[in-house]
Amino acid sequence: MMKVYSPLIPTAHGRDSWYWCLLSNTRCCDHAGWLAKQGNADPAVAGHHGLSNLFGGILGFCALVLLPSQAALAQDWSADAAIVTDYVDRGLSNSGGKPALQLGLARALGEGFTLGSWASTIGEGEGNNWSEVDFYLAKDWQIADGDLELAATWIGYPGAPSDSDANLWEFSAVLHQPVTERGQIGLIAIATPDNSGHAGDALYLALETQWQLDENFALFGHVGRQWNQREDRAGPDYNEWAVGLFYSINTVSLSLTFSDTPGLDREDAPGPCGKRLVAGINWQPEW
Question: Collapsing DSSP states into helix, strand and coil, what is residue 159?
Answer without folding.
Answer: coil
